[in-house]
User: What shape does this take?
Amino acid sequence: MENKSSLEFTSYLSETEERLAGNIATASVLNQINARRFERDVISDFSSDVLRRVDVNAEQISLILQSDIHLEEFKEIVRYNDTEWDVDRPSDELIILLRRILNQPESSSIYPDTIAESDVIEIRATDTRPTDSMERVDVIEKYGLFRQELNDVASASGNRFSNPAVLADIATALNEDVEAILQKCTVDMFEPELLGSIECINKQTLVEQLEKVRETINSRLVSGNIDIDAYAEIFPILSRHKKLHANLRKLAFALTFQRRLPLQSMFTKLPEQPNINAIEQIDYFVNEEVVGNIFKDVFIQDHVAQKFKRMCKTGPISMDIYKESLIMESTRKIQFIPTRGALREFAAYIGDSCYTLQGKLMSEEHPNVTAIIMKQINRGTGEERFVGSSLLIDTTDVNGDRAAVIRALNPIENIINKLSVSDFYNQFTKYIKAATQGDHSKVGIVIDDRAGGAATNRPLLFNYLKRLRDDGILKPMPISKEDTVINGFDISNKVYEI
Assistant: This one.
């Protein structure tokens, strides 16, 4: 180095520092990569273990509570962020539950730990591609009409239906149409040939009625303060004019979403072209929820109620289309695993169900309940994931005989929509009957009045259960109320024997 000039030495030193810095940087990057690989492997092992055992132990719970990475992974496993039904839960409910599970004393339940899990079952898949009938012009037009109206209301409503702008938009549209009708009636009333005639008197009466309706629209609908009773007041007048039917339907949909909020998300991503699942969802919502539930007893006069039904009639897009679905040769590998362990407390999230207890433990509130976790095994990779859940209630019928009751049968939406509903139902109930045989003299299933109740949140599955009940295939099986009420749902007279 003695022979180097000052400038050369400075240059040499600079190059050496860069080289060293580069080596250090490279080492740092390699360390980060290795750390991430290790982290990924640890998380993968953690996830695989929970999915394989369908359980999470005390050591893993402690790890979840201490590590944000494990917490986020656990949320993914139990589908905590995917549920659309428990909209009012505390933001930290999962943490609350995990801490309560960790601090829970040793169980002294009189109920057996669990029943046997099922084998891996092959359940037939359904081809949901459009059938030939869906290429008909009337099907495409009617589907497009309802799709647009439902999407307009559901998409504008946000995550919670509390935005009065939705109702205000409908009010503005109705007001514009009412104003146009009023102007025409006013002009017609003063036609010389109509003065003093019956037709003139009728138009004058209509003007008075429309003025009253407009007051209701401005005072209640614009402010978002309208309810179904106010709707029943304005409908008989406005429904005389066919051009108002679209906005009257949208208003009925909006009022239904107010009461059945979780259904709203079903209609924000409907495909542009009709398929079996989309048609089934629209048909269920309009005929079962809007007409058959929310507005069932609203109209005093029967002819008005019938007019409302006709206005909402889905016509060529009806449940009959569903019967044209094709059963494919392919199947999905599903396994049913019962648990009374920690994952019982997260079954509601896994199944996107509405019975979460908001920080309370199922094991404490309902010790006679077993959760049934549904797990799908990928045919190609062998990877596993949770795809739904159900509850099995250990109770008695009204005669005192021991009974097992299926409640909240909730495979997730994008699974049941791709399966043969009848095959899924048959395989699940066959498993439950076999697993409880000898301990229970009867097995029943809840079938109430709507999807989103105690039976299931899945419209496709609810329609199937409803048909089994309405066709008399399943008979009533009244059960004890004392130990079967969860989240306020009394199912004692809504159970049917399998």
